Amino acid sequence: MFIFKLAFRNILGAGLRTWLNVVALSFSFVAIIFLQGIYTGMNDQVEQATVDAFYGGGQFWQRSYDPYDPLTLDDAHALLPKELNALVQSDQATPILIRQAAIYPEGRFRTILLKGIDPLQKVLSVPSILLMDGQGTIPALIGSRMAKSTGLHKGDELTIQWRDVHGTFDARTVRIIAVVKTSVQEIDNGQVWIPLDQLQSLSAMPGHATIVVLRPSISPPGISSGWEFKSLEYLLQDIHTAVRSKRISASIFYIVLLFLAMLAIFDTQVLSIFRRRKEMGTLMALGMTRANIIELFTLEGALHGIFAAFVAALYGIPLLGYVAKTGWELPGAADAVGFAIGEKLFPTYSVALVAGTTALVLLVTTVVSFLPTRRIAKLKPTDALRGKMS
Amino acid sequence: MRRMFWLIAVLLSSVCYAQTPRLPQSASGEEILKKVDLNMFSENKIIESRMVIHGERGSRTVETKSWQRSTRETFSEFLAPARDKGTKMLKLQDMLWTYSPSTDRIILISGHMLRQSVMGSDLSYEDMMEDPHLPNLYSAKVSSEETVVGRSCWVLDLTAKKEDIAYNSRKAWIDKTRYVLLKENLYAKSGKLLKTMEVREVTEIQNHWIAKSILYKDVLKEGGGTEFFVDSVILDATIPEYLFSKAALKK
To answer: Which of A10, A264, B47, B201 is most buried, by CB atoms within 10 Å?
Structure first.
């Protein structure tokens, strides 16, 4: 306790030098917690939006369906088995038929995925109810990214060409009934949504679907063949991997930030040990062992970290709390990243995140404070009293 | 591109026409179509042609030389432009391969790739794979008579006989005396017009009538369409057997 009191008094006595280090270190605290919170928030936000809009509580895929292989789409359709039909009838699941098609916005050819969805479905957040408003033509929904890339607007008419189940070309004019502002790419880019029954009829595939989306919390029924269940964990793994890789790349920033703060602590410790040789000699003459002196100096260094944690809390809690509440407005270019984030990102801070970051910074600060003190182990009291280093 | 081959065949059909008796004015659609089909195809042809693709950003010309055996086997080599020179295509029955000298690889065109445009033209690879024998695929009915490029024509309404035909219906304008297809419209199942073909010039080669200039247009796309010019045709030519093998693509 004596050593702690002495260290505390010494560090306060150092005045401005101490507070400069503390403030610099507190920046590291706040920046690391803020960025970690951003990535945690991004993960949560993307996951929630994607689950609500497209993944639901998991999906059944027709056996031939592979979203990464458009060649599979021609054969990726089948009648629903009775187990899935029962779920669809009770609004616990919704079928989606996916066909490959071509559109000609402004006279340019572009391949798309034509998706049929039940306008009355209640499983996904896609505003499919708008597809009830046909007004004589086939109503179609597109996402905001799709609208931007094709130059299409609400009310525009568009020719879509596709092949039916027999391979015969068909082409119809659809009317863009609404442009849905969505951050979920899985329902937006390169896709046009029309009523399921119309797509089934036009493709000569009555009752067929490519995927069936379950309502969250519904347990998937056992189906013998033809359909495979894809759990949320499976469907979200790409998003998790992408966020993880972003988190790892951001860690370079933490390392640089922490390195700069630690450099300041290290410098302070080296300077302190050099300038306080006589003091060390006096303390040894008064009966302190070398280990006690090493402990004293290490504690002084570590106290920088503790002070920094308090200072960071002083301005960090209101600042980060405000951002968590109001969100962080993303620049327009962020949309190109392809994450379902929306216009604002809301960071998420957990107790584990704050405690973990604090523990990490304190540990690193203590280790960095200890390193220069190793020279004290070789210090002779007589040399120290004369102001020499052994 | 399939159209290209098919149109070449169309051009060649007129050759045979000169040797066949003329149908009566009241001929049925089926009879006319058979006549066109009969005239259209002959064994072994060597064709040099140009395809002028009129896109939104200008036009470019692709020159090819094709060796055709019956209607189902064709070997083509691109002669120009420089960047496509040496590219080869081989069609054997229902299979289509391409070879690009820049990658030195032979690629089987299948599935989704068949829908892609050939060299940016208004023709898709899928078009190339279609059976050109129209009587096999369509039932025909004479709907009217019209004059096209100054020639008196029968207008035939063609309806697919089977469900798995790419175009559910067509409208064809057939020269009454030459039995050459002078104009054709291709329709989707909904009746929407998808593609058109117009013969602009017919010429007599080796005592046969050949369409020399054709405009092919994907009507859903912007642009001026794809023009096809036949520069030379050799009928009943001797074509070495090895050309109709994948090995020939790399030679």
So the answer is: B47
